[in-house]
Structures
1.
Amino acid sequence: MRLIKFYRMGQLAAEKHTKYILQIEKKKDDIESALTEHLRINGAYWGLTTLDILGNLKAVEQETVISWVMSCQHESGGFGGNIGHDPHLLYTLSAIQILSLFNKTQILNIPKVSTYISALQNKDGSFSGDKWGEIDTRFSYLAICSLSLLNSLDKINVEKAVEYIVSCKNLDGGFGCTPGAESHSGQIFCCVGALAITGCLHYVDKDLLGWWLCERQVKSGGLNGRPEKLPDVCYSWWVLSSLIMIDRVDWIDKEKLVKFILECQDIENGGISDRPDDAVDVFHTYFGVAGLSLLEYPGLKAVDPAYALPVDVINRLFLK
Ligand code: GRG
């Protein structure tokens, strides 16, 4: 019955999206590639995870990817966005996630990587993203998710880290990047994700936050990131994963959201964009495909809403 509903509204061009992702690597000279050179490892994570959700990770030359990822590691233990670039928590998580996809985290010097991450925790429990010191709840998520995947959460003060995240909770039930900062769906994903990973979801006011999150759905069926803003496929990840983690996903119209995501596909050349008829990119292709997976669209691997990796990858890591 549910399958019939999905097919009536247009289908996911899964093969086209696979081809689109596989050809990105070959187009190293185009403008998009030049602009994203500094965060290539992050783009690789989004692309490879999308391929895995689509069941096509085998189409990638695993050894080449792994040796390139390892050559992005800095002597401090952290990873840069590309070879020779400075390390940052974002790229360090992407490297760990890529190695997790290929079941290869054991090739890491785990104590060294976790020392790099734990050194970025500040006295109040917050995290800086790199040696330059900016603080943001995104960095709390990056550190907590990375260390959890490496089974090394004991290397940080988890209690303090949670305390800092809770101090960023607002009266509307959402979370911002620092205490008192406006609630935004992206930050909410980071805070709720970090609280889910550390077993601290009891700090979330689930009904209040659920209400704020479900109000992000606009007429077209798409979701926005905060009040009065335009819908964007990326929020099919940030909002939906948060709603699932707090068990309030039934509060939105899922069918309308599926339709919105499918309308953002480039049916001819593959890839998904932020809104219908805009240019596609690898990030929105992940957000669309992963969003559809969270909505239980047929034929896709299930994704873990906190770790942003396929559930089978997470089970393989934790049930070992
Ligand atoms: C592994 C899934 C995963 C994530 C890593 C870096 C990170 C952790 C999460 C980022 C969360 C975040 C802040 C997402 C929002 C990104 C975004 C679209 C910001 C745009 O903000 P505005 O103000 O857009 O330009 P709006 O939509 O509010 O107009």
2.
Amino acid sequence: MAKKFAILGDVHSNLEALNVVLEDCRAQGVTDFLCTGDVIGYNACPRECMEIIRGLGCPVVKGNHDDYVSDFSQNLNNFHPHAAQVIEWTRENLDEESIAWLGNLPLSVTSMGITIVHSTCDHPENFGYVFDNLQAEANFIHQKTPICFHGHTHCPMIYEKSMSGVWRIDPQDMQLQMGRKYFINVGSVGQPRDGDPRATYVTYEPATKTVRFRRLEYDIQAAQERIRAAGLPDRLAERLQFGQ
Ligand code: ZN
């Protein structure tokens, strides 16, 4: 059977969104998974989401939230107060073994000619954000494989490097070209921020070099109710319905 990858990340403890995404993966005939990190944070189902992601048995890279939850020496002061509050709540709601698993995640993985990283290939430990061509250019210098998938901004995007330079391409289904490099942001399963509240992930078929962006409706209200029931900041529930 031809390989078909699902690349997903920034699940952020959103069980409703994750379940819908995995159901779609099955319907799409996905054979392999890659996870771009930030399994936990922001939403109210860290245990359940970790169990599911670990159950996939796929490569997973460490996101900044995974890093903060598992590294008790970190100062949460330079984190947004809402995010910091959820980090502390998440620590209380995960067992030691799960926290250690998050702490042991690698920052970058290359598997079958594809690299995954949470933020960028240049200094992945700094968790820098890529929003423009210049920032993408810095990544490309350190990107060893033609294709790298990432997340972190929660905004799906394609950056392409060709002989003519670095170009930003709006997320769209496309066939990747030989001789070029691609740095593709797969968006966020659990907290999209590009104004579209639907859960996002990407599929990739090596045989045809085709990338597809999937957007899926899920039960946002159920995810919001969980956040409120857990006593987490209301703003985190609200933003889900606006995709911000
Ligand atoms: Zn994130």
3.
Amino acid sequence: MKKKIILDVDTGSDDAIAVMLAGLSEELDLIGVSTVNGNRNIDITTTNTLRLVDYLDLDIPVYRGCHLPMVVSLTPNRRKNVPYIGPDNKEEDVHGDYLPLPETTRKEEKEHAVFWLARTLTETTEKITLVFVGPLTNLAMALRIAPSIVENIEEIVIMGGGYAINNVTAGAEFNFWIDPEAAKIVADCGAPMRIVPLDATHDAYISWEDSEEMLAENSKASKFCGLLMQQRITGYNLFQPLPIHNTAPIHDALAVAALIDPEVLQDLHEVNMDVCVSHGIADGWSLFDFEKRNRARKPNCTVALRSDRERFVRLLKENLRKSK
Ligand code: BDR
Ligand code: CA
């Protein structure tokens, strides 16, 4: 039986690859995609998601979610760039504003993503798996509206956080940094949770050769993925070079891949994860208590510190090949 999933995105180049993978996989039943403010403002992330599902002719409803994080922008000087408009140097931009896809007449659903999440997870008769690859605002809000939805969540797979690797500040990863309070609410919600942090996604890097291989495929999804990969590699080479030249992570796709094949995630640890909402230099930091120092906090997630790159890239190529 196919696994019923909901995917929440801030599309975004790697989000786009995650949507393609989730939408094309025969193992997953993607019942809807929700959008959130993150890599860009909500108008852009929603438009990009609609363009993408239309381009691939995917029959998947898209729900527009929160346009701002829960509270982070209320405190003066806590954040300067919310909604985010991308890096100053546009050459470093791995997302761009709009995906280079035809404009679409496809419309988002009328219901707000938060209400849709709360309603769907309340009414469902079978448990649903959630994959969240942007800031966690929509889920945190749904949990505040309807905390009992936790009982109907099979698992939450989250791309977010970092242990030895971070990407916005010395301590924080982008998704958690954009909305730390939301990340903390979700971390403490009590549902089974797998965390796919930067440590795992950087291990599952894609290479320029991978991108060329995908561009040469006779499939819309593979070609578009190849293009996005090259955009990401070019940006990473400039602002955050990986140890191997001409490679880049495609974070969000790894979280979706973990639902199709759990073995893509490696070096798993059952730990307590907390998220720092300090407003200070550690704001948004994901704290993994490997030594179980804080006895008051029990393990609340499984975190993957590594991944099987070959397995992931193979899975991605096989699935994206399925589009026309
Ligand atoms: C995360 O931040 C975003 O820029 C990416 O889409 C990914 O979800 C990585 O830190
Ligand atoms: Ca994302």
4.
Amino acid sequence: MRSTYRKILLKREANRKMIAVLLDPDKCSGGVLAATISVLKTSVPDFIFVGGSHTLSSSDLFIDLLREETKTTIVQFPGNASQFSTKADAILYLSLLSGRNAEFMIGQHITSSVAIKKSGIEAIPTAYILIDGGKPSSVEYISNTRPIPNDKKDIVLSTAVAGELLGMRLVYLEAGSGANTAVPVEVIEHVSMGLSLPLIVGGGIKTTEQMTAAFDAGADLVVIGNLFETEMNKIAQFVECARMYNEQE
Ligand code: 1GP
């Protein structure tokens, strides 16, 4: 088993919750990037995710910069095949299972599969499930798919379990970056009870209380991006909160 996925499994087995800081190269450059890196040196999350639904800047250069400055595991979170970079430790090989657009379920994968395999990078097949976050998300717009209504927890669970049976290794419940409403705890709980895979939750998380509520409900890894784009100093608060949460367990 490759090392990034093993890290997730080992932490999960030890009942340790994880936090990922999501950086979009388009939104994090110059002084903002320098300030973010400076915080990330002292407040170290479990992972740095790099990507976005519609990212135009080079992931290669961005990841090179991060590598020079931090030792954190870097995971690509690509919006499409063009964002693929050989520089990260791993790539979430996302299939948008909540939608019915073949391009984002398998098309982009075919475009990038041979290059990913040749590069030797660790690809982690991930069931990516978009849930209504109370406003139209970039994922919804770019993928031309509809999110699952956030009160339809059985549909979310059935979608997640379909991903598990198809051999995917992670499930990512996504409310969309900057969502008004994060994934409801009832949905997280329902999915985590019926699923054997590690569960990632992201989209619209703005407070440490929301993060710990997601952990309590069964999320193994919480992803936060939007909030830190304007308030990067809050990374420290969230990393410390996750650390204390794990110490209490
Ligand atoms: C987005 O789940 C991630 O794809 C994180 O969401 O940017 O709202 O924190 P935010």
